[in-house]
Amino acid sequence: MAGDPVFTPEDDAFHFAEMGEGWWQTETAWFSFYVAERNLGGWLYSLFRPNIGTVQGGAWLWDDGAHLPWECLYSANYSALEMPQTADLRDVTLPTGVFMRVLEPTRSYALGYEDGGRLKLDLRFDGVAAPRPLTAGGSTFGRSRHFDQFGRVTGTIRLGGETIAVDCIAMRDRTWGTRPETRPRRAAYVTGAVSADESFLAVTNPGGDLDPVAYGFLRCDGRTESFAGGERRVERDRAHGWITRITIEGVDAAGRKLVAIGEPASRIILDRHTFIDVNSLVRWSVEGREAWGEDQDMWPVHEWAAFRRGSSGF
């Protein structure tokens, strides 16, 4: 990790001044969370394009009762709301309904979301390790700055008239740089956590019969090391195309090995305009121990259509 970029307290703020004037200059802030016993997953996601003055994103909440965003527990994905000109990402309430405030720089964040009587989130993210930079230039994120961080998410979900407690180890990420509306290739973003001290992230670039790990890390015994190699293998439902079983195998720079076998507990299909994300909340088995995380199975729309029409025979 020597010489790699470091996420500093200044990086909790916007990076607009250093991003240039291009149309596609973009900054994002994403937080995930889940309630394992209810197969319930959730996201808060915000995407800013300062040079055209817009913010998009919102909140999603799903369980095993539905996978379409218009049928799941909650979905609000705004595409182009006006970004407040004086917004400070370290303490901001957005027109999408998302709230974020830094409690401890680079580590702890108060999170919220409110949409009338439909949904209210009151959450806190506390990092269990420092944000880690994505360093693989060949990954789907290209040359944009990208940092990933596992943390403990606690708090409550108020869904209609019900209050649901949240206490989980989940992922957040932060990115800034050039991000056109199109994606260059298929990709998968896979996470899992046994505990605060044992977790993994694998970003893969599927191609043909192979799905190698392009970037990722393994954390155990309080030590985090980058993956030196690995692959993702999946089984899919023929009727729908989504994943029914997933295996991640990898070895890190210290020679430590990971074998994680997972099955989706629930999923949501997110329309990201020119690509789709079949996002699964995954229950993992890591050497017999239970872990939870996600598999984001991302496809350019035209590739997904070709895959589905070919496999379904219509």
Verbal overview:
- This protein has 314 residues and is mostly beta strands.
- The protein has one domain.
- It is built from 1 helix and 19 strands.
- The protein has one helix at 301-312; strands at 25-35, 40-49, 54-62, 74-82, 91-93, 98-104, 108-115, 119-127, 132-133, 145-159, 162-178, 187-195, 198-204, 213-220, 223-236, 243-252, 257-271, 275-286, 289-300.
- Strands 1, 2, 3, 4, 5, 6, 7, 8, 9, 10 and 11 form an 11-stranded antiparallel sheet that branches. It has an 8-stranded antiparallel barrel with strand order 12-13-14-15-16-17-18-19.
> In this structure, how is the largest beta sheet organized?
11 strands, antiparallel
Total domains, how many? 1
**Care to count the β-strands?**
19
CA(first)-CA(last) distance: 49 Å
The geometry reads as globular
Using only C-alpha atoms, the radius of gyration works out to: 18 Å
Backbone structural class: mainly beta
Counting DSSP H or I runs of 4 or more residues, the number of helices is 1
The amount of beta strand, in percent, is: over 45%
User: Overall mean pLDDT score?
Assistant: 93
Helix and strand element order: EEEEEEEEEEEEEEEEEEEH
Low-confidence stretches: none
Estimate the helix proportion, in percent.
under 10%
